[in-house]
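REVIEWER CHECKLIST
Item 1: Sequence provided? yes
Item 2: Single chain? yes
Item 3: Sequence as submitted:
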Amino acid sequence: MSTPSQADFAGQHITVAGLGVSGISAARALAGLGARVTVVDGGDGEKQRAAARELAAEEITVRLGDGATLPEGTDLVVTSPGWKPDSPLFAAAAAAGVDVVGDVEIAWRLRGPDAAAWLGVTGTNGKTTTVRMLASILAAEGLHTAAVGNIGTPIIDVVLGQGQDGAQPYDVLAVELSSYQLHWAPSLRAHSAVVLNLAPDHLDWHGSMQAYAADKGRIYEGNTVACVYNAADKATEDLVREADVEEGCRAIGFTLGTPGPSQLGVVEGILVDRAFVENRQQQAQELAEVSDIAPGSGTPAPHNIANALAAAALARAFGVRPAAVRDGLRAFHPDAHRIQHVAERDGVTYIDDSKATNTHAAEASLAAYEHIVWIAGGLAKGATFDELVQKSAARLRGAVLIGADRALIREALARHAPDVPVVDLDRTDTGAMSEAVREAARLAEPGDTVLLAPACASMDMFVNYNKRGEAFADAVGELTARDH
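Item 4: Structure as written out by the authors:
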């Protein structure tokens, strides 16, 4: 039997903006609830036409290219994350008095009366790792859970699938939320949530850093148990102070140092909880050892220790036992291309952090190693590199630059690290990675780390950051094979 919230969509004319994964998921879900759905997309290529044919077979109308305007009689617009707030479609909706919401908002409205709690995770970097760590910890507690949202699994599908066809209902969901999704989710009220960090990103979409931060801060609105913040990033704590939360909701910090009351932190290699204990002033609870974080992959990078603390804080807010935090962290394995150990050759370690697609992520990656030959470059997306180079200069043994916007990094190195040897590869074909690795190996000395942390997007040379990371690993393999 459908809940009243689901029944509310029956008979409505809903326009879905975008033919991506979340748009198609929303269209099918809403059509299944009896809505009359039209999908609009500004593209008109073969990929869009193929998707349109599939949806047409399900009696969902699709309008492509110039037809991506607001259909007459629309009751609600559901947008995919990538559509900018100033899109003409949304201006037309505003003029017609039609609300615009995102897929996360629809999922929230569709939850049943006994719905699983949501533990929300956002931030400029580290979201996916933290959500997956959190899901691993929750599972170690014996809870039925899933990592959903911006991580790739459309949350509408999960919400509508709960308890259907005999499926076990979820106890709690670990939900990754982008700034785009939060912008379009005004009703979302998580059990507990974290903003991991804040640095300039997607400013072309949001218009300003202030607007970007405000959208991130929406994740704290209406939290019932804990608003988790990064004690090393004051902007995240400021967002907690500004949030309108439920009575009794607490601010919980995490720190790589010794924790104070109502914080989680690290003491002599131990992850420690001084927030969810009976006497926060005098008591501390051991949760896990730092070595429990992705065991077998070497000493975890500082930002992954921070991610583990954030995940532990959300889990503890949900009542998870200390032992489950330890067991969940031990069971977690990082995704590929995130601080991934590729090989060690002649005393030099090769690390793939192709996922470091912006300066904030690259800064965290560079901070994890003492002596580095840095492979960087790609599409800068409007970023500047002076602050990154200033903070990392003392660690750099050398730099190898690739990609369309490498000159921006070269100029920052010339200003702030003039003594660091730089190899500028004037080619943007995918084979450039093999040459980059060879040059990096030439610059490296025993004990050094050759680190792919591009600080840029990959699309000038590669399909995505995964392919870039694979090219790096292949190049390292070629380097090793030639010497054996």
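Item 5: Key structural point noted by reviewer: The first helix runs from residue 4 to 7.
Item 6: Recommendation: ____
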